[in-house]
Prior knowledge:
The protein contains 2 helices and 6 strands; from the N terminus they run ββαββαββ. It has helices spanning 25-34, 56-63; strands at residues 2-3, 11-17, 38-43, 48-53, 68-73, 76-77. The strands form 2 sheets. It has a 4-stranded antiparallel sheet with strand order 3-4-2-5. Strands 1-6 form a two-stranded antiparallel ribbon. The radius of gyration is 15 Å and the shape is elongated. The chain starts with a strand and ends in a 10-residue tail after the last strand.
Amino acid sequence: MIEEESPDQVQRVVVSIDDQHLGEIDSLVEQLKGAGMLIDQVLDGLGMITGSVPDEQRTQMVVHIVGVASVERQITYRLPPPDSAIQ
Length: 87
């Protein structure tokens, strides 16, 4: 089962930093927080930051921060219980 979040729910995201701004990742973290993103992990070596944003409007704010290469929504996969009819 794949669960996608509706636009009015908190959205889990992965933010990729462009190569030119990898050295400024701490500054970008602060800017992401200022745009309303709750930070879970900063993966310096990969140039990625994981976290969540409260709504689509905040997601769009994150997308437009200079140094952000992309913002991808995380998709949650859930397996049915072992005793369910469909396996």
